[in-house]
Amino acid sequence: MTMRQLLTRFGQRSARATVRPIGADFAGSRLNLLQAEVRAGRWHLRAAASVKYPMPRADLLAAPKELARFVNAALASAPFQGRRVIAALAPADVRILPLTVHLQPGQPEAKAVAKAAAEQLGDSAADHVLDYYQVRGADSEGAERQVLVAAAPKPRVLAYLAALEAARLEPLALDIGPAAISRLLATLHGSDVGQSVALLNFGSGKSYLTVIWGRRLMLDREIDFGEQRLARRLATALDLPADTATHLLREHGIGGRPGGAAVETHSELGRAIREILHADCQALADELAHTQVYVASRTRGSSIARVYLNGSLARYPDIQTRIGELIDVPVHLLNPLDAFDHTLPAERSAALATPIALAAGLALRGGLDA
């Protein structure tokens, strides 16, 4: 069963509306919402909010009355209009399968992808909801297709849709993180259609590297690099509690360039952190180098033009400098609100930058003509 079929069965409303839907990201600890409008061919921010849950996410989604009250308050915190949403499935509920599909003469692409996904999933294929996203390559018009298949267990998808409707939201579509993030990056670089752009999204346990070429998704890869791993490494080396190690990382970063401002202030500690985390940073450097080679192979020699940073480590001191040492391309902190015309104060924009990226990509679904 495809995602579109399931949404139709679940009561998706097909009538067009002048008000665009809200991008809704029920993240690990916060509900992130963003709604945009199109004026004169440009994206304008209508409303954005990031609100902390009053209880663990799973408990909240399983408590309809509390969920409805929480969502109502979140929508009332900014000038949102309507309750139609495009939501993202939780990463733990989605299995992303990178597949190479060979089309037979006259064979529809969707059927070929479904067959390849069924072979990969085996006997459990019938119990999953499937969708797929074509990955761009220089030879994407030939008989071979590179695709990312999103496979989610049907009971979890149904439970999530039921929770959204219990909150009196109207789910128009369910999306996945890589597709939404690629849409955001493409909007940020709408005029640079020939370039590859990457986002390194740091999570607590894992990080994710997304690459687009022009306006199409090229790569989405999980990387074994995250705050918890770095904190454990530091805690073990310095014989510290994990919480103390995390605090040190957030205060001093992962070891900027020798002679940098942060290291000068705490030179001994900065050098120690840099040395302790060297192996992890080198492993990340290797991943980035392999990605550069892959991008060049798929684009006949093109390279990544810019790397954006987002997530937990993006708030670390000197993080741009340290990542810039690992990959020889310009490195920038991501502010998703740069994709929209808006009048938010700089302080508010900066506070929303880290949590709102996925919601922004969801809100952009359908493009300027939707």
Summarize this entry quickly.
The protein is of the alpha/beta class.
Notable traits:
single chain, 370 residues, alpha/beta, Dna Ligase, domain 1, 3 domains, five-stranded mixed sheet, 39% helix
Describe this structure in words.
It is a single chain. The strands form three sheets. The protein has a five-stranded mixed sheet with strand order 3-2-1-4-8. The chain is globular and about 60 Å long. The two termini are 25 Å apart. The chain has helices spanning 3-9, 57-61, 64-76, 109-121, 154-166, 177-188, 227-238, 242-252, 261-265, 267-276, 278-298, 319-326, 346-353, 357-363; strands spanning 22-26, 30-39, 42-52, 84-88, 95-102, 128-135, 144-153, 170-175, 196-202, 207-213, 216-223, 304-311, 331-333. The chain folds into three domains: 22-88 and 337-364, no CATH class; 95-153, Dna Ligase, domain 1, CATH 3.30.1490; 190-334, Nucleotidyltransferase, domain 5. It has 14 helices and 13 strands. Mean pLDDT is 86; it is low at 260-265. It is an alpha/beta fold. A hairpin with a 4-residue loop joins strand 9 and strand 10.
